[in-house]
Specification:
Layout (H helix, E strand, L loop, with lengths): L11 H13 L5 H13 L17 E6 L4 E8 L10 E3 L3 H6 L7 E5 L5 E10 L7
Parallel strand pairs: 2-3
Antiparallel strand pairs: 1-2, 1-5, 4-5
Helix pairs in contact: 1-2
C-alpha cells in the first residue's frame, strides 16, 4: 500500500478496549489483528481541533468502496454484536479495522482476507445519540 495514510482519532476508552481485543485476536485472526494494531499505534487519542465527524465504535457509517464505486451503510460494532443482515460490521474484519478513526471525506486503503488491496472513502458518519437525518 503506497498512498499516505489518513490521520486517525480514537477515543481513549475505545482505544484501550480495541488494543486488548486486537492483542487477543493475534492467534485467531492474525492478519486483521495486525492491521488493527498498526492502525491503533498511529492513532491520536487527542480529538482534532475542528468539529470532525469521526468513525468510532457504534457509529453508523456510509462509505464508498472505491474499487467498485458502490456505497454501503453499516454500523461499526464489537465482534459479539456483528450481524451482516443488520448491517453491523465487526471491528475485527478488514473493512471494520479500516473504518475506525476515519473522518468524513477521508480515504483509506485496506487489504481483503484474500490479499487484494481495496480503498474506501467515508461519506457520512452518524453517532448513536443522533437522530436519523
Amino acid at each position: 500500500m503506497t498512498t499516505a495514510q489518513p490521520a486517525l482519532f480514537i477515543p481513549a476508552p475505545d482505544y484501550d478496549r480495541l488494543m486488548a481485543m486486537a492483542e487477543g485476536a493475534t492467534r485467531s485472526e492474525p492478519d486483521v489483528a495486525d492491521f488493527l494494531l498498526q492502525e491503533l499505534s498511529r492513532a491520536s487519542l487527542t480529538p482534532p481541533a475542528r468539529d470532525a465527524r469521526i468513525v468510532t465504535m457504534g457509529s453508523h457509517v456510509r462509505f464508498r468502496d472505491e474499487t467498485t464505486g458502490c456505497d454501503r451503510e453499516a454500523q461499526l460494532v464489537y465482534p459479539e454484536q456483528a450481524n451482516a443482515a443488520a448491517q453491523r460490521i465487526s471491528i475485527l474484519t478488514p473493512v471494520g479495522a479500516a473504518l475506525i478513526g476515519l473522518s468524513e471525506g477521508q480515504t483509506m486503503q485496506w487489504r481483503t482476507r484474500d490479499g487484494k488491496v481495496k480503498s474506501l472513502t467515508v461519506l457520512k458518519v452518524r453517532h448513536e445519540t443522533e437522530k436519523d437525518a
